[in-house]
Amino acid sequence: MTSILGISAFYHDSAACLVKDGEIVAAAQEERFTRKKHDAGFPENAVAYCLSAAGLKMEELDYVAFYDKPFVKFERLLKTYLAYAPFGLRSFVIAIPEWMGKKLWLKEQLQERAGDKVPILFPEHHESHAASAFFPSPFEEAAFITVDGVGEWTTTSFGTGRGNRIELMREIRFPHSLGLLYSAFTYFTGFKVNSGEYKLMGLAPYGEPRYVDLIKKELVDIRDDGSFRLNLKYFDYMVGLYMTNRRFAELFGGPARKPETKITEREMDLARSVQAVTEEIMMKMARHVHKVTGMKKLCLAGGVALNCVANGLILREGPFEDIWIQPAAGDAGGALGAALYSWYQYLGNGRSATPDRRDRQRASYLGPAFSDDEIESFLEDNDIPYKKIEPGELARVAAGLIAESKVVGWFQGRMEFGPRALGARSIIGDARSPEMQSVMNLKIKFRESFRPFAPTVLADRACDYFDISCESPYMLLTAYVRDKYKKPVPPEMDQARGLDKLKVHRSEIPAITHVDYSARLQTVNRNDNRLYYDMIKAFEDLTGCPVIINTSFNVRGEPIVCSPEHAWRCFMRTRMDYLVMGNILLDKKDMPEWEETEDWESEFPLD
Questions:
Q1: What letter does residue 346 receive in the DSSP assignment?
Q2: What span, in angstroms and rounded, lies between the C-alpha atoms of 412 and 409?
Q3: How far is residue 200's CA from residue 190's CA, in Å, rounded to a whole number?
Q4: Is 196 part of a structural domain of the chain?
Q5: Inside any domain, residue 211
Q6: Are 545 and 510 in contact (CB under 8 A)?
Q7: Sign of the CA dihedral with 122 first, then 45, 331, and 160 last
Q8: Which of 78, 113, 473, 478 gives the lowest tally of CB atoms within 10 Å of its CB?
Q9: pLDDT for 11-52, tens place per residue?
């Protein structure tokens, strides 16, 4: 058997993946083990987990594949600084020691860990993204589009995948980047770059697209084929420590919002406007790629592919019959792509679509799992009271708690790979509850009040409730609530602006209905997650509703939980009512008093 370890590291969302004879055995992000969100360090813990899952030692690997080419990336860094010198000297002085200290010597670091006999492979960054998009997909052949901030030089690419090969046909190069344009607005509206982009997307429906024309006139020149060029005089990311500069601030009427200060209508309108521009570029790109490649299917990867609103638009209005999006579309997925690229493209092994036309990602349940014995051992070692539930009763018991408007921590099976909780490390609740959205945001997640929650719906009932005609297992598509479940907006609230829109309950499932009637949808198929499906089916039997809230099992500022200890600590630090781990139920009322060593809620202040 051929075993390939894929690794991504040193920028954000470091991860590891183990592929055996083309099968994805394990994959995980380093942040889940270190508890450092978006951990960029070498993924020691993720590597150790992947090797353990495969029953291997590092020296027993056949190949190690890193997700980009460090020397080419360093070349881009040096050439960019030289082009803009003497500007950027401060950031140059900060960056160079790290490169000289470890990033340039990555091959030696890997060789030291694996031994001299294990070959080290280095696909290009966007080759890794493209491989992660096409090779696990259910398609025999497809076009692909990869869009992110920047790899070595490439920021956007498209091409085709056929059988066991991908071919990159065209690219856009740094400093022209859709991902960096979106991140510039993320920064300017007061959110953290490389982690707050989804907040910007969630804020967009509260605003008006009043800056669209200004953005297209001053910041980005968009061509009919979806290619674009940025007006670099407004940006500082080429060599500076900030994303935008004084000219950008003057263009939009004042300085960037300071983090944690009040969100104004300007930020909402900026979010709506850059989201509209992003959707326009992605749609034009999709139409051009369809025309050039003649393909009927499309695969997406890269950080911008996590923009589920743009993805949903391409699915609904674009020219492709079907699309598939890599669940770990950002840099974490590069580890998976590097391993699969090595198996198929480098080694030339055969590939065909699966007989059932489902993807090869195993619903992205690729992380660690914990047995009931391991869970019980942790609880008993810490004198934590618990109750065991018969396996056949667990779905019904959990559904009953949700139907009573209880908030339940749900810890089951293998942890998800990628940024979304998909029913393994989730916090779940009743989508019918008008209060649940604010309760979860303020008392459970400790996060901004405007943030929407996602629904999980039974796959065979999804089209009844939402305007969608396909499955969405990875929560990477938005769909709209169907008219029959919408509620009329009261006349006095019809002209509500900004966050006042939150006061309107817009559907019979208000907790997951965004202010524009959209929802970032997960459909669950029983073949992918039997217990999660059965629990939601039991909830439907009790209530007539096949939809629940599903949000990630974490609070603002921390990664999704991995182990029973992480789940327990998160449960105790929040106002969750119950925690279900395996066949074990914990009731908050029975728990010992929690002694917090730090001011948890003030650590994550709200906007």
A1: I
A2: 10
A3: 9
A4: no
A5: no
A6: no
A7: positive
A8: 78
A9: 889 999 999 999 999 999 999 999 999 999 999 999 999 999
